[in-house]
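[audit] Reproducing an earlier prediction to check determinism. Same input, same settings, fresh worker. If the tokens differ from the archived copy the diff job will pick it up downstream; this log only records the rerun itself.
[audit] input (558 residues):
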Amino acid sequence: MTTVPPPEVAPDPDAPPAAVTGAPSVTAAPAAREPAEKTGGSFLAKAALVTAVLSVAGSLLGLVRDQALAHFFGAGTDTDAFLVAWTVPELAATLLIEDGLAFFLVPAFSLALARRADGPLLDPVRELVRASLPRMTLCFAGTAVLLIAAAPHLVAVLAPGLPDPQLAVDCTRLTATCALTFGLAGYCSAALRAHQRFVAPATVYVAYNAAIITALFALAVPLGVRAAAAGVAVGGALMVVVQAPSLWRQLRRPYRPETGPAPASPAGGSSDRTLQTAIIWTVLLFALCRQSQVLIERFLASSLPAGAISHLNYAQKVAQMPMVLSLMLCTVTFPVVARALAKGETERARKRVERDIVLAGCMVLLGAAAVVAAAPPLIELLFQRGAFTAQDTAATASVMRVYALGLLGHTLVGALARAHFSVARTTWIPLYAMVVGVVATAGIGFLTVGTWGVHGIAAANATGICVTAVLLLRGMGPRTVPIRTRAVVGQLGRLAVAAAGAAVLGAACARRVAQPAPAVLASFTAVTVSFVLLGLLLGAQPWASVLRSVSRKLRHVR
């Protein structure tokens, strides 16, 4: 059977020598105009590590934010009202920072950077900024004003059975400002990542969650749950502040055009191809459909007893942490894949995507096994204090285990969507796959919410996203990145079997320990060790690659 190239940490053998060593090519444009592209494994590993560390810091602050919210307001009507308003920043984060905007801006900036190397008279990067940023800013501001004005109608649509709709309206008007701030933050993030600058974009959620936590502790008594919404407004502004200086430095770099007529574009298209309207709409509609899963959950849960929305939210936040960490590598390599495709290097892009999918799947399956095994003591350790009771812990832990069944699907959707959109060409496959997944989520949710309650909603989420992942995987072909699907699925299947065995052993360890902290530690240790051993036994590829990489490093040190 054909095997997938291992996700090694060593330098990419397909990268050109100048990309690995940093040595300038004799035919390249002047160094003052554009630094050499870094695509070697060492650079990508360091960039992924820095991004992961800062993202973990942001996720931990997000966990502290949720703990503060649970401590002050528990899982009652106030929290439900805020979480309805929280739908706006959740949707904005998906559309403007994490998926939507990045999916067409990163390839657009990557294509502009590839054209810059040809030395045209006008800098393609600056021309792209001049053409796109003012118009997008007006759209972001107009959307924010519209959301503020339509807040009462929005709350009525999102949660018609809410006990206190006016509180949700007040919170929504505060969180609606993120339509502007998240849009600007997402623009900065995409441009910086295309320039292979990852530190500033990775700090945005650190600043954002720090603002919400500060607002909760400073204003929870006088403002109630509105304090959290005010923190969202301030945190969105800080997201822009922490990135703007870095982007300004990139745009101020001196540009020296080549003399004489400019060569043909490496992508073979005209300059208006960078931001085609059709590309933008396919990306935004895909991201909107993906986030609509959350809207469906909130809508269905609003008819259940008070606290149902809160239980779903806390379970989802904890369960998705492995997915967020697993996608860090794909976030770092997305600009590399986009620029490789802009230069016509399809084979290098294919190998990179295959490695990323297998490694991301390995990481998320390990995390999913840990979440399933240690769910009750983990939720007790994180949230059971203040107004968050033991009944809330039991309900949240059981829902989280159901959510975890769809984590691999969520990770594959994130990784495969990046591969589909990295070609900077209109493609409807991701939107089609996401629409089918959303229809499956809505249908299963409506059929099961009356019988299984929040567990039916969580199961619908997991099923729908897995359907989308399968369709996206089948859609990989010559017009996108032609990965070897059977080989990738074979590796993921071995890792899934290892994760299932590790979850059973980890759960057995957790039940034998009474206190939550030692129980979580024992369970996580058992899951990690058994997952690695089972993976080696089954011939799962990442572990063999890691062992080879470590052996090379040790030989080099000696």
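[audit] rerun output stored. Observation attached for the diff report: The chain is about 75% helix and 0% strand.
[audit] end
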